[in-house]
Each structure stands twice: as structure tokens, then as C-alpha cells.
Amino acid sequence: EPIQERFFRPHFLQAPGDLTVQEGKLCRMDCKARLLQCFVWLRPSPIILFTLKVSGLPTPDLSWQLNGRPIRPDSSHKMLVRENGVHSLIIEPVTARDAGIYTCIASNRAGENTFSLELIVAAKEVHKAPVFIEKLQNTGVTEGFPVRLECRISGEPSPQIFWKKENESLTYNTDRVSMHQDNYGYICLLIQGATKEDAGWYTVSAKNEAGIVSCTARLDVYTQWQQPPQTTKPKKVRPSASRYAALCDQGLDIKAAFQPEANPVHLTMQSGLVESDDL
Fold this sequence. Notes:
immunoglobulin domain; Immunoglobulin-like; 50% strand; 3 helices; five-stranded mixed sheet; 2 domains
């Protein structure tokens, strides 16, 4: 019996949409085409038609274009065909030159079919490890008063922030203790109404893909009758032609300054000597 074989142009079962890929990454475009192949058995009476849908048999011819120009396989552009009939265009690494309109063309003896998509190549992300612009400082506060532990951190991408008190992680905010940060890198731990239990060592850590840094400082909480210790800076003695002025700045006795040959013991025994502080 005579058999007439007919082909129809390919039809895409699977096609990707527009893509955005970061520069330096891998890009993969998958598609699958179906060929409709029709077999017609011709009999005198009656006429029987039988249609068979074949996926990938025979394998359709596929080609790729970028902005209307054919893409040739090379070290960074590969074209693969899997057993299930999926065709893939793989680009690795993606560069700015790969951005544009991609067209896939499937063809056979009956015709062709196409689909297009746009590939957008995003700029490569810059990674910078976190660094402290301003570190935590040791702080003292009177019991019952609020206190802020502050620092400033930079890094790309913006790092995650972690707080610890001694060896205990501070993972959530409360009505009295809360953690804050803004878009400029300022980090703050705010304690409302400090208590003796809040005293201790606090550590703040910043982490991103490029690294991690930490900084530690101490918080002291004093009772109402205590005074925070004050650090006194040593006095600087300015050069002076006056021996009197120079020695007074050091808290020395005035008469001793002008009578260096005198016996220090004799001077202390005399009555009526005047100390520089009294003057």
C-alpha cells in the first residue's frame, strides 16, 4: 500500500525567557523542539489517517544568533544536546560582550521556527571585607541611666551584624535592650536604664562574603553614690624662660625654686613658708 510521508515545521516545547546574569558567572539557555511527522496510509476504501507526534526524531537542526550574528562554539560558548532532546547554549564566563538579543532557530525540510530572549549582564559585584571605621569604646554609666555602645563599619556587600555579651549572643530586641543600624554603617546597642547585670564585655562582629571582623569593649555600671573613674592627662610643661613658672607647673615650692643651694630640710622646718598652691 502506498504511504505518503509529510513533515511540518518544528514547534518549541520549552524556551527560556529574558535572563539577567552577573558578569563572570555561568549562563545556560535550554530549549526543546518538537517535529510533527505525519504518515498517511492510502487505501481504496476507506481512507485511514494516522498521525504520530515525534519529539526530537529526527533531531531538528538548531542554531543560535546574538543580535543577528551566528554564534560559533569556542572556549566560552558551548552548544550541547542531551538524550531527551534538550538543546543548551552555555556561556561561561559571561562578559559584557555577551549582552543582547539571542535568537534560537529550529529548522527542518518543512520550515523553521524561532524564539528570542534578552540577556542582561549585570556588573560584577565588588566584595570588600568589613572594616571598623570607628571601634567600640570602653564605657561607664550610672545605674538607671541609658547607655549606647556605638561603632561604625564599612564593607561590600553590607555585612551582617552580630552582638554578644560575654559568651551569650544577643539575638533579639527587648523593651530595654535593642540593636540598631543605619545605611551609613553606624551600629548601636542601646540599653535603657542600665543595671549592674548589664556590666561586662560586649563584642560586635560584622560578616560578609569577603570576611569577618570583631571588636570588644567593656561596659561598667556604677551605683548612684559611686563616681566613674576619671582619667587625668599629665600636664604638659611649656618651655619658659622663667624658672618660677616652670617649677610651679610641676607643683614645686616657690622658695626652693629660687634658693637651689638651700638645705631642703631647713626650708621645711622654717615657719611662714608659703606653698605655691596657697598662692
